[in-house]
Amino acid sequence: MSEYYEPKNLEDKLTKRGYQKYALTTALGLEIDKIPLTRTNSEVGFFFYDSRVEEFSHFLEKFSKRTKAKQIIINEITQRIIIPKKCFLVANLHEEIIGTLMGVLNSQGFLYIGDVLVHPQFRRQNIATSMLNKLVVDWGLSNKTKYVWLQIEKDNYKAQNLYQKLGMKIIYSYYYMKKSPSK
Q1: Cα–Cα distance between 81 and 114 in angstroms, integer?
Q2: Domain 10-179 classified CATH 3.40.630.30?
Q3: 173: which residues sit within 8 A by CB, 6+ positions away?
Q4: Max CA-CA distance within the chain?
Q5: Is the CB of residue 90 less than 8 Å from the CB of residue 104?
Q6: Do 71 and 61 contact (CB within 8 A), yes or no?
Q7: Which ranges in the chain belong to alpha helices (H)?
Q8: Does the pLDDT at position 141 exceed 80?
């Protein structure tokens, strides 16, 4: 941690009170003009939405670690937060959703990428890379994006490998702490 955070030795104090680290996370990023644009999967349709559509949430509920209740909460938060620019990208093949990606652009030109998920049967078929390319080319550049960044769980090695192949570099790592259940 930075030497400037307060209170000093917070992690030690929380550990003594029964808190444990969890959700170790890494943030990766890259200037938009350094992202290598590769061939997009031409068999897939890519659709942009200004708001989180129901199909987007259902797909994440089905294939991510988030429950339906968490999806509802995230949807509510997404609708209430005033975000300068956001988009929700859905990858579709034969009228079936096979991937999702969310982009949130702040006023300084930083594009946050989240909710990147590909149907298990369609992984390793250039879907995630194609969604990132579509986001950058069809949305990011026209909205004056300068920098792209995202967060991934530290033990998600497949995602880390994908993003590092695209040239993204580790910016920082962090974690949360939660109280252990009483025994």
Answers
A1: 15
A2: yes
A3: 24, 25, 26, 27, 154
A4: 56
A5: no
A6: yes
A7: 10-16, 54-63, 68-80, 127-134, 157-165
A8: yes
Tell me, rounded to whole angstroms, the distance of Cα 170 from its chain centroid. Answer: 14
- Number of C-alpha atoms within 13 angstroms, CB side, residue 172? 4
DSSP category for residue 84: S
Q: What is the DSSP string of 27-58?
A: EEEEEGGGSPP----TTSEEEEESS--HHHHH
Q: Report the phi/psi class of residue 82: left, alpha or beta, with left for phi > 0 and alpha for psi in -120 to 50.
A: beta
Express each pLDDT in 32-68 by its tens digit.
999 888 878 889 999 999 887 778 777 877 877 767 7
Cα(96)–Cα(94) distance, rounded to whole angstroms? Answer: 5
pLDDT tens string 156-183: 888 888 898 889 999 998 888 888 876 5
Q: pTM of the predicted model, to two decimals?
A: 0.80
